[in-house]
Amino acid sequence: MTATQHAPDTEETFDVFNPRTQEVIGTYPMHTPAQVQAATGRARAAAAWWAELTFKERRDRLDRFNGMMARSTDELADLVAAETGKPTADAHLEIALALGHVAWVGKHAPRVLGRHRTASSLLSPHLSGTVTYHPYGVVGVIGPWNFPVFTPLGAIVSALAAGNTVVFKPSELTPGVGAWLVDAFAQVVPEHPVLQLVTGRGEVGTALVRSGVDKVAFTGSTATAKKVRAVCAESLTPMVAECGGKDALIVDEDADLDAAAEGAAWGALMNAGQACIGTERIIVHERVYADFLAKLTAEVERVHAGASDDTQLGPMTLPSQVGVVESHVADALERGGHIALGGPATKDGVVQPTILTDVPHDALANQEETFGPTMTVESVPDMDEAVRVANDSKYGLAAVVYAGAQARQIAERLRTGMVSVNAVFATAELPSSPFGGIGDSGFGRVHGEDGLREFATAQAVVAKRFPALLALTTFNRTKGTEKLLGTIVKVVYGRR
Ligand code: NDP
């Protein structure tokens, strides 16, 4: 499978560039609203077939899709590296994490989404309930460019395992990866278009949301999520939104500082900082601040960004991101911040790792998503202040805590959807862990049990097992029954 397989089938096309070489590596159709609508129509027809398959039959197909990805990892990783500019080794890691996730949803969907019994109540022992999870129908997935395999697949395979069909619009920067995934799935499921691709810029995403899909899964910026939500509101289409963050990493005085420095460097810099759960703010107990900063600096000094595949960081995938990173660094310096290491030093879309200190809380580098290989580091007198500073953000995606005895308590006081303790990216590594945030980081979850339920609607079925002891829902209710109800309510609920 190659990128060129998706030859243009509309008049308008767009080119995809390799961020390392600036070469054109693919040309894709700019699908029209009519074509997007037609794809959703095909997906709806396919949904009738796909939803009727058993969980086991869908799992079998997801497993075969996973097997194909696993056998073709080299080819897929090369494509990811070419479209994003990330090192091929990082592309392999991304794919490995995605494989674990696909395997998890296929295996656990029957347990999570299979029919469940619900408990009877004291007032209604004659009623017995079940909950059945039905697919929505067609799910529209709008994907980002930073992790073009792992991130969209998080929504896609949960939606598929739940019995939905999917129309997928990858970022205009990474349509080749999207095409590869869709082609691979079509080889495993040739009967019907269960997973389809539409390509183009943002307006194609809007067309997808307007095309009659039953649910939208979006990953990208908060600003675009708001636009997508406004379009969803026109038809009351439900949406899950994963919008990035301003993740904090907290280091307590009893933390393993070597591990914390190693984790912080990787968490802040991996994928050139273009990770929604990338560390952007580091908050350190004042007693260990100097030691930690020295260790962090030593770690970061060894990391270099460049256009060749043997540097640990590639160039920025989104060309305009360089300007965002530069503006955040400039703003931090203007407000009294200092560069402890690195500096904007951007060249040909490459940004070198940068550590900023003494940056005020209201600076862009502490408030807005930088999405680059930079980090701010500050000291705090205690962990109460660390929690306060970490929570001083409109975002609430993920956080990291390096600590000893207090680690879990600190973690649970953070206003985020995810916290990794004494590790970075742990919540993304564990397929059973729900992924998502609060506030400007979005809402809803992908991955794990919550991620599976996100793509299903709960239907309650409650049946009468035997005649009611208290016949309440009838106009033939007697005064005696009403009196007895009043007595029972007081006895059962009125004691406290
Ligand atoms: P966007 O939010 O603009 O794009 C994300 C996805 O939405 C892409 O597929 C994009 O398509 C699509 N899209 C854009 N506009 C619309 C629209 N009006 N309706 C429907 N879909 C739309 O992110 P950018 O790629 O422009 O990146 C900007 C910033 O967003 C980054 O600097 C970063 O801060 C953040 N971001 C966060 C990510 C995360 O993982 N949470 C991932 C990516 C970005 P297309 O690419 O074709 O325009």
Bound molecules: NADPH dihydro-nicotinamide-adenine-dinucleotide phosphate
- CA radius of gyration: 25 Å
Assign an overall shape.
globular
Measured by DSSP, the beta-strand proportion falls in 15-25%
What is the helix fraction of residues, given as a range?
40-55%
Cα-to-Cα separation, first versus last residue: 67 Å
Query: Strand order, biggest sheet?
Result: 12-13-14-11-10-16-17
Please, how many helices?
17
Question: What is the mean pLDDT?
Answer: 95
Low-confidence stretches: 1-5
Coarse structural class: alpha/beta
Biggest β-sheet, characterized? Answer: 7 strands, mixed
Counting DSSP E segments of at least 2 residues, the number of strands comes to: 20
Task: Tell me what the structure shows.
- The model is unreliable at 1-5 (pLDDT under 50).
- The protein is 42% helix and 19% strand.
- The chain is built from 17 helices and 20 strands.
- α3 packs antiparallel against α6.
- The chain is globular and about 80 Å long.
- β6, α6 (175-188) and β7 form a beta-alpha-beta unit.
- With 496 residues, the protein is α/β, with parallel strands linked by helices.
- The strands form five sheets. It has a seven-stranded mixed β-sheet with strand order 12-13-14-11-10-16-17, with helices on both faces. Strands 7-6-5-8-9-19 form a six-stranded mixed β-sheet, with helices on both faces.
- It binds NADPH dihydro-nicotinamide-adenine-dinucleotide phosphate (NDP).
- NADPH dihydro-nicotinamide-adenine-dinucleotide phosphate is lined by residues 142-146, 169, 171-173, 201-202, 205-206, 219-221, 224, 227-228, 242-244, 276, 318, 321, 324, 369, 371.
